[in-house]
Design goal:
Helix content is 49%, strand content 10%. With 344 residues, it is α/β, with parallel strands linked by helices. GO terms for molecular function: oxidoreductase activity.
Length: 344
C-alpha cells in the first residue's frame, strides 16, 4: 500500500470513533510509557473499565507517581500501580521481568508504547543508539519475557490476551539503505555511532516504526495458528505530545506548527490503543495486523513484499540473538512457545 501526504492530512481531519469499552474485571493491563501523552491517556481509558490490575510502566518513579495520582483523581481507579522500567537500559528491563515473575499474577493486555524522537545520536547504557534500543530491542525484550505469562493467562482463564505494539504511519516512508541490508548485522549497523549521522537520525523514527511492524509480523508468524495470543501494530495518528521534546532547532519549530494545524489530541490518538486491545473479539483478521483509524489496513509495500519478508526474518533472527544474550528467558520462551515462521 502506498500513502501520500494528502492521505495523511485527510486522515487527520477525519472524525475518530469513540473509545471502545469493555469489562476488565479481574484482568491485568500493562502500559509502557504510561506517565505521559498517549500512554497516560490509554491508561486512563483502561482505568475506567474496572481492571483487576493496571500497571503504569514508567522510567521515573516521581513522574510515574504523579501520573498515578492524576489517574486516580480523574477515574477513581484504585487498582493501578507504578512499576519502574528504563528501556534504555537492558539491566532495568531484566529487573522488570524479575518483578513480574515475583509479583505478577496474570497479563491480559500488554501495550508496548515506547519511542524516542531525537535528531542526534545518543548512546544508551548498552552502547547502542538510544531510540533504536528503546523501540526495537528493549520493547521486544519486554514482550518476549512476558510471553509465557500471557499464554499461561490464556490457558487458565480461557481468554485471548493481546499485545499492542505502537507503530506509526511514518513507516510508509521508511527505508533501509541497500548497504545496510547487505551487512550481515543490520541492527548493529543501524545502532552504531558511525552510521547515525544527522541525515540518518532525521528519519530514525520512521525506521523504528517500520521495524515495529516487522516484529509484530515475525512474532505472529511464529505463534501456532491456534494460539490464543493476538499481536497487532497500531497507528495513533499524528498527535502532539511529549514525544517531540527531543527535537531542536527549526525541526522543533516546524513540528509545533504542524501540530497546531493538524494534530489529534493524545486522548483521541490513544483510542487506537484501546481499539487494538479490545475490539473485534477473537477475530482471526487481527493477527499480525496493522491498525489505523479503528480498522485493519494494509501496511507499506515494502512490508508486504518478498524482500520485506526476507528482511523481517533476518531482523527477527538478529533481534533474538541479541536478546538471548541479554536475558536467557528469551531463548526459553522461544523454544517453548514459538516455532519456525509459517511460510505464506
Amino acid at each position: 500500500m502506498r500513502r501520500g501526504i494528502w492521505d495523511c492530512i485527510r486522515d487527520q481531519f477525519t472524525p475518530q470513533p469513540p473509545v471502545v469499552k469493555a469489562d476488565l474485571t479481574g484482568k491485568t493491563v500493562l502500559v509502557l510509557g504510561a506517565n505521559t501523552g498517549l500512554g497516560f491517556e490509554a491508561a486512563q481509558h483502561f482505568a475506567t473499565m474496572n481492571p483487576g490490575l493496571l500497571i503504569l510502566a514508567c522510567r521515573s518513579q516521581s513522574r510515574g507517581q504523579a501520573a498515578l495520582e492524576r489517574l486516580k483523581v480523574n477515574t477513581g481507579c484504585t487498582t493501578a500501580e507504578v512499576w519502574i522500567v528504563d528501556l534504555a537500559d537492558f539491566a532495568s528491563v531484566k529487573q522488570f521481568g524479575d518483578k513480574f515473575e515475583r509479583d505478577g499474577r496474570r497479563l491480559d493486555i500488554l501495550v508496548l508504547n515506547a519511542a524516542v524522537l531525537a535528531d542526534k545520536y545518543e548512546p544508551s547504557k548498552d552502547g547502542r543508539e538510544t531510540a533504536l534500543q528503546i523501540s526495537c530491542l528493549s520493547t521486544p525484550l519486554v514482550a518476549l519475557i512476558l510471553l509465557p505469562t500471557m499464554l499461561k493467562t490464556a490457558r487458565e482463564h480461557a481468554t485471548h490476551p493481546r499485545i499492542v505494539y505502537v507503530s506509526s504511519e511514518m513507516h510508509y516512508w521508511a527505508s533501509i539503505p541497500k548497504h545496510v541490508i547487505e551487512d550481515p548485522e543490520i541492527l548493529k549497523t543501524l545502532g552504531s555511532k558511525e552510521y547515525c549521522t544527522t541525515a540518518v537520525m532525521a528519519t530514525r523514527y520512521h525506521v523504528t516504526k517500520l521495524l515495529s511492524i516487522l516484529f509484530v509480523r515475525a512474532l505472529t508468524a511464529r505463534l501456532p495458528p491456534d494460539s490464543p495470543l493476538i499481536v497487532t501494530a497500531v497507528n495513533p495518528g499524528f498527535c502532539h505530545s511529549d514525544l517531540t521534546r527531543g527535537l531542536s532547532g527549526i525541526v522543533s519549530v516546524l513540528e509545533k506548527l504542524f501540530a497546531l494545524i493538524f494534530s489529534f489530541s493524545t486522548e483521541v490518538g490513544s483510542r487506537q490503543f484501546v481499539f487494538a486491545a479490545l475490539a473485534l473479539e477473537d477475530s482471526e483478521e487481527l493477527r499480525g495486523s496493522y491498525i489505523s483509524g479503528s480498522k485493519i489496513v494494509e501496511p507499506s509495500d515494502f512490508v508486504m513484499s518478498a524482500e520485506g519478508k526476507k528482511i523481517q526474518d533476518r531482523i527477527w533472527d538478529e533481534t533474538v540473538e541479541i536478546l538471548e544474550k541479554v536475558d536467557p528467558r528469551v531463548g526459553v520462551a522461544i523454544e517453548n512457545y514459538l516455532s519456525e515462521a509459517v511460510v505464506d
